[in-house]
Design a protein that fits this description.
With about 450 residues, the chain is of the alpha+beta class. It contains five helices and 22 strands. Helix 2 runs antiparallel to helix 3. It is elongated, with a radius of gyration of 48 Å.
């Protein structure tokens, strides 16, 4: 009887354990069977880049302005005989525009007359001083004779004094004449400077090209009045050489450390879909810009434009080349981001991982110091092993945003690694591919 009772108790305990296990399984899987989405490790080429947006700019731009005010009377002619306009090719010294010069011509005439008057004044002063020199010589001789006679019966005292005074007066008049000559010469120099200024202002009425280049922008029309004040008004914008262009790229501060002079660059423009242009980094400007608390730096990319396809101010989509790996092992980014629950890990590896973070959120950490991110360093891939997964530690390399370069002793081409979970209701008998399935993934897939 006792044996029968012991057997009944044992059966009850086993049934309770089996029931609890079944209940736990149903609770854990919510009545669903777990399947893993996998992808094969591939061998291929990987080009890691930084993407940015920029603007095509001429390598050297000259802003042609006006130094005098006046009305635009006419435009010049380009080398083909056409009126200066947008896109005109001009040589250095080509007349671009003519400003009304009537006022400046009158100023030149007035300055010329003033110079002639000043020169006449100089000639008169020079003639006067010759006359003064002659009078001084006569007064000096009279005074010398008076000194020999002295005040006596032959020469009255008043006459003696008169000769002396005449000599002193003649000397003073000569000094005045010399001063008048110096003043006349200064007046001539001043008149010459005024004339030169008037002539220069008159020459400014003819706007000439300072360099050989192409007219990018014409900012005035015939009949329009330009006013020159503190800043010279801009009339034309010229590019010296459109065969060499620059792309001014705005690069985020988080990426600027990866940019360096001479770095290879490729870019596209919307004007030529599918065509890829190449260039290299010429300069990283140090004056950062801040917009809505976002700091960016301007990078100058130099590119050849011998074909003439690139037009100024096109928007360019830039790719800065960081690395170009050939024949390396590649996995989708999602494989490096997915992490299993502890009960999904094969038992022999489960001890190396924990499943708590102190706030009730389920996380996975590697007690051996690994990381499950795809941002460089050490990462973990997961290979399906029956109903469980086993970890594969890898070293993570560059990424192109979709695929990541990896290397490890346990890696080989064609190895299936887990991307995420796909759960299907238990007992479902349909395998129709068009039947909607409930997808639940613990990964964040790559771009």
């Amino acid at each position: 009887m006792k044996n029968l009772m012991k057997r009944a108790v044992s059966v009850a305990i086993v049934a309770a354990i089996i029931g609890a296990g079944g209940a736990w399984y149903l609770y854990r899987s919510d009545g669903q069977a777990v399947f893993y989405r996998t992808a094969a490790v591939e061998r291929g080429d990987l080009l890691a880049t930084i993407s940015a947006t920029g603007t095509v700019e001429p390598e050297e731009v000259v802003d042609v302005g006006a130094q005098v005010a006046g009305k635009i009377d006419a435009f010049g002619k380009d080398k083909n005989g056409n009126e200066i306009d947008y896109g005109s090719v001009v040589e250095e010294g080509t007349v671009l525009a003519q400003i009304d010069d009537s006022l400046y011509t009158a100023d030149v005439a007035q300055s010329t007359a003033q110079l002639m008057q000043a020169k006449s004044g100089l000639q008169r002063a020079e003639a006067d001083i010759e006359q003064m020199k002659a009078k001084l010589y006569q007064a000096q001789r009279d005074w010398e004779r008076a000194q020999k006679l002295g005040p006596s019966e032959a020469l009255a005292e008043s006459s003696y004094d008169a000769y002396k005074s005449g000599y002193e007066t003649a000397k003073a008049n000569l000094a005045v004449g010399e001063a008048a000559i110096a003043q006349a010469k200064a007046s001539v120099a001043q008149s010459e400077a005024v004339l030169q200024r008037s002539q220069r202002n008159l020459s400014y009425c003819t706007i000439k090209s300072p360099v050989k280049g192409v007219i990018i922008d014409r900012r005035v029309n015939i009949g329009q009045t330009v006013v020159s004040s503190l800043n010279a008004p801009s009339l034309f914008l010229m590019a010296k050489d459109l065969k060499r262009m620059q792309v001014w790229v705005s690069v985020n501060e988080a990426d600027i450390g990866s940019i360096h002079t001479g770095q290879a660059v490729t870019f596209t423009v919307d004007a030529y879909p599918g065509e890829v242009f190449s260039g290299e980094v010429g300069k990283v400007r140090l004056n950062a810009n801040m917009t809505q608390n976002v700091v960016t730096y301007t990078v100058e990319v130099i590119t050849d434009n011998s074909s003439g396809k690139l037009l100024p101010y096109l928007t360019a989509n830039i790719q800065f080349e960081l690395s170009n790996s050939k024949g390396v092992l590649l996995v989708p980014n999602a494989a490096l981001r997915w992490s299993p629950r502890p009960e999904q890990i094969a038992s022999e590896f489960r001890k190396d991982f924990s499943d708590s973070n102190g706030n009730g959120q389920r996380t996975l950490s590697n007690n051996n110091g690994g990381t499950t991110s795809a941002n460089g360093g050490v990462g973990i891939l997961w290979e399906q092993q029956g109903n469980y997964v086993r970890p594969i530690k890898v070293r993570v390399g560059p990424s192109d945003g979709t695929m990541t370069e990896v290397e490890g002793k346990d890696l080989q081409e064609g190895l299936q690694v887990v991307l995420g979970e796909q759960q299907q209701a238990a007992g479902a008998k349909t395998t129709n591919p068009f039947t909607p399935q409930i997808m639940r993934s613990r990964s964040t897939s790559g771009r």
